[in-house]
Each structure stands twice: as structure tokens, then as C-alpha cells.
Design brief:
Blueprint (H helix, E strand, L loop, with lengths): L3 E4 L7 H9 L2 E3 L1 H7 L6 H8 L3 E12 L4 E5 L2 H9 L3 E10 L6 E9 L4 E5 L2 H9 L3 E10 L6 E9 L4 E5 L2 H9 L3 E10 L2
Parallel strand pairs: 1-3
Antiparallel strand pairs: 1-2, 3-4, 3-5, 6-7, 6-8, 9-10, 9-11
């Protein structure tokens, strides 16, 4: 099923700014997304896509706090506000998450460990079990990602550094390369995130 996807960017706090930000979201038709992915659609399917439900996307950002030695992946405005409030530095946009659950998606959960000073994003039961067994606290849902690879998505990898006691979720190749060069170990694929 083809759908229109609204893409949001930026970080603005406050209810007034939130309403303005929502009005500024860009609408990208499914036909344009398929064209960007190299898949041709017909005029008939593009017209049907224009009337389909809209799935809203939000950027999935990587942040870094050098004092804590912690990577923080944010998938919503509240998490971004937490990152800036805790002196994290924005590094890059990894991908996107769905703001609401869509067919074939699961929640991307955020956990926090006060003893490790580590943020941990996970979408798998193995990751959730690992977080609880290591004493992490569940903070909330950051967004939703696909359980299988669909056109326009890439794997969301989970990395771990024993030396830093730090988890990092990575989609972008630059983040993946940085994780390996800093001695992080690949743990698993959490799911698949929209990547444009």
C-alpha cells in the first residue's frame, strides 16, 4: 500500500511552537518516495496514494555527551529537549521513526541507566530484557520502526562498548564506522528505519 509521508525536522519547544512546527512539515507523496528509491509508479497508483492515510515521520538523531561518554538517540521532541538540557551535542540525523504505530512496526523504547549514565534505544524483546536485567529504567517510546526491511528503510544496528558502558543505535554509515573505530561491538539489528 502506498501512502503519503509527512517528514518533520528540527527541534522547537513549547505548545505554541509545536503547533507552528506541525504546520511546517513537508508532505512527500509515496510516488515521490518510490521515485527516490528508484521504483517507478503509475499515475493511477500515485493518484491513489494522494488519498491514502498519512504516516508522519520524525527524525532519529544521534547526540553525544563527552563528559558522560554517552551516545543518545532521540526520536521525538521530548527526547531532544532532554538531550539539550543534559548538554548533549547533536551529531547527525540517522534516519526517521514513525510518530504513530503503523502496520508492520514496533515501538523503539528508550531506557536510561543512572549507574552507567547511558541512554539505550531498543525495539527487540532481547534488548528490552537486556535493559531490565542491567538495571535500566524505561523512559518511554521514541517512535516506531519496521520489523522487516521495506523499500526506503535501512537496518537500525545496536552497538555496545564495554569500556564506555555505552549503547549506540546506528543507521547512518558514518555512525556505524565511528562505532567500530571506537571499539564498539555489533550486538543486533533492532529493526528497520525509514532513511531518506
Amino acid at each position: 500500500m502506498m501512502r503519503r509521508i509527512r517528514v518533520t525536522t528540527g527541534s522547537i519547544s513549547g505548545a505554541h511552537r509545536d503547533a507552528r512546527s506541525r504546520r511546517q512539515r513537508l508532505a512527500i507523496s509515496a510516488a515521490a518516495l518510490l521515485a527516490a528509491a528508484g521504483i517507478a509508479g503509475t499515475t493511477l497508483t500515485a493518484a491513489a496514494a494522494a488519498q491514502a492515510d498519512v504516516a508522519s515521520l520524525y527524525p532519529l538523531y544521534t547526540w553525544w555527551n563527552p563528559d558522560r561518554g554517552d551516545n543518545f538517540t532521540t526520536g521525538n521532541r521530548n527526547d531532544e529537549n532532554s538531550a539539550t538540557g543534559a548538554d548533549y551535542l547533536p551529531i547527525r540525523k540517522e534516519a526517521f521513526v514513525y510518530e504513530t504505530q503503523q502496520p508492520g512496526t514496533v515501538p523503539l523504547h528508550l531506557f536510561w541507566s543512572n549507574s552507567r549514565q547511558d541512554n539505550f534505544s531498543t525495539a527487540t524483546q532481547a534488548g528490552i530484557d537486556s535493559a531490565y536485567s542491567a538495571g535500566y529504567t524505561h523512559i518511554g517510546i521514541q517512535g516506531y520502526i519496521n520489523t522487516s526491511q521495506e523499500p526506503g528503510t535501512r537496518p537500525l544496528y545496536q552497538f555496545w562498548s564495554e569500556a564506555r558502558q555505552d549503547n549506540i543505535a546506528a543507521v547512518d554509515q558514518t555512525t556505524i564506522d565511528s562505532a567500530y573505530s571506537a571499539g564498539y561491538v555489533l550486538v543486533r539489528v533492532e529493526g528497520y528505519a525509514p532513511y531518506y
